[in-house]
Amino acid sequence: MTRRLGSETLVIATHNAGKLKEIGALLAPHGVSCISAGSLSLPEPPETGQTFVENALIKARAAAQGSGLPALADDSGLCVDALAGRPGVYTADWAERQWFEGPPGRDWYMAMGKVEGMLQELGASIDRSCHFACVLALAWPDGEHAVYEGRALGTLTWPPRGTLGFGYDPVFVPLGEKRTFAEHDPAEKHSISHRADAFAKLVAEQFAG
Ligand code: IMP
After folding, report:
1. In this predicted model, what pLDDT tens digit does every residue of 7-56 receive, in sequence order?
2. Which of 202, 185, 197 is nearest to 29 (CA)?
3. Which residues line ligand 1 (CB under 6 A)?
4. What's the gap in Å between 177 CA and the centre of ligand 1?
5. Atom of ligand 1 nearest to the CA of 166
6. What is the Cα–Cα distance from 30 to 203, expressed in whole angstroms?
């Protein structure tokens, strides 16, 4: 049987205040109080895993061991079927500018263009199916852990459309929709996203009954 969270504070393995706020709001109705790894000055471990599960576990375990409290981490990205699941765990890396591409930082339009260029090289009739994946990992200081994986299935469109959201949202059209994620208002996107799917699974196992 999967271990359940008790009344201890939960460490969210992120240094991103926005993520802490979003996850904290999702867990508050279940009586869980959250604190971020950043506010505890815990170091960010290198994400050296080959899968979303490995990377989420690396982050959750480091935060649980560093704090002595249960910890929750997430890892997410875009997987394109015709590209054998790439960019996958390298989703954010594909947006990282090389020295010859401009000032250091992330350029999401460049990253979306890279994916599109690779698809077009495979031919006009190539399958454009893809999914966003989100893995949530819970880890306890004694080493026990639980993992929840969520998905949003869809297809890639070109050119990018919409101004809402972030990352690859302007080229992702969720299954059964005509609009991209970047044309959905945030509440609507959050109700059908890979993150919502993963959280629903976590909540069902950790807090039901
Ligand atoms: P991380 O899990 O914060 O490392 O995110 C990995 C990358 O996946 C992000 O930088 C985004 O580019 C991409 N990604 C994850 N979720 C979404 C989403 O909902 N929309 C668009 N891009 C996403």
Report:
1. 889 999 988 887 788 888 888 888 899 999 999 999 999 999 999 999 99
2. 202
3. 74-78, 91-92, 132, 165-169, 181, 193
4. 20
5. 21
6. 8
User: Three-state DSSP class for 134?
Assistant: strand
The model's pTM is: 0.93
Domain 10-206 in CATH 3.90.950.10: yes
The conformation of residue 193, written as its DSSP 8-state character, comes to S
Respond yes or no: is residue 93 known to be catalytic: no
Q: Domain segments of the chain: what residues?
A: 10-206
Q: Which of 76, 151, 197 to mutate to test the pocket of ligand 1 (most atoms within 8 A of CB)?
A: 76
Specify whether the CB–CB gap between 112 and 166 falls below 8 A. no
Give residue-wise pLDDT tens across range 59-115.
999 999 999 999 999 999 999 999 999 999 999 999 999 888 888 899 999 999 999
User: Can you tell me which atom of ligand 1 is nearest the CA of 108?
Assistant: 12
